[in-house]
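Supplementary Methods S3. Complex input for the flavin-adenine dinucleotide-bound model.
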Amino acid sequence: MATYEYDLGVIGGGAAGLTAVAGGAQFGARTILIEKSGKLGGDCLHVGCVPSKTLIRTAGLWAQTGRLKEFGLPDVARPPVDLGAVMDRVRGVIDRLQAQCDAEGKGHLFAELRPLLSGDGEEPYETVARRLQIPKATFKVLVHRFRQRYGQLLREEIAPTVSSPEEVEDELRALLAAVN
Ligand SMILES: Cc1cc2nc3c(=O)[nH]c(=O)nc-3n(C[C@H](O)[C@H](O)[C@H](O)COP(=O)(O)OP(=O)(O)OC[C@H]3O[C@@H](n4cnc5c(N)ncnc54)[C@H](O)[C@@H]3O)c2cc1C
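Predicted complex, serialized as structure tokens:
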């Protein structure tokens, strides 16, 4: 009789594949995930849900600043937006965070947590925690730690571009306001 090293094999490490292998592993199945691109997360993470929501919110914020007068506020000069620069910066940090998670064997967790970085997570914590088969309180702690690490990495990126620690915080607030 044929023997197999794995109980479950999944091709594709997108939202569906990651959820399937994480679920299988949590039920004790020996699982294998095959991903051709070298990056876990699939469309949702890299080109779909997350980047599109970030762009939509950025565009919304920018459009609002064009309506200041309607609200009795003084008009402000609006220089052209270098959206590429904003996205490059955010993408660079997120790539580093993903590399850390992958190295720690937590790629599937990263896929679940990443939408929460930009405040775009549409699913209630309870639903995600249930899917990961961990208590909601544990999931909340994970989200908190993940955001702290994200903030730390952002600060490291920003620090060399400003002249004082106070400016790092100002810059961070401005960056988060632009992408959230
Ligand atoms: C612009 C945009 C916005 C979106 N917004 C939302 C949203 O707001 N909410 C929402 O729910 N959905 C959204 N989606 C849809 C969402 O991205 C998809 O439903 C989701 O990515 C599907 O996941 P998946 O795992 O089935 O496939 P994919 O994400 O496509 O993952 C497939 C994976 O399989 C790998 N693969 C393919 N062939 C092979 C092979 N032969 N061997 C090994 N690996 C392979 C690929 O490299 C990829 O990593 C959006 C999509 C787009 C394009």
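Residues 11-17, 34-37, 42-44, 47-49, 52 surround flavin-adenine dinucleotide (CB under 6 Å). The chain has one domain: 42-179.
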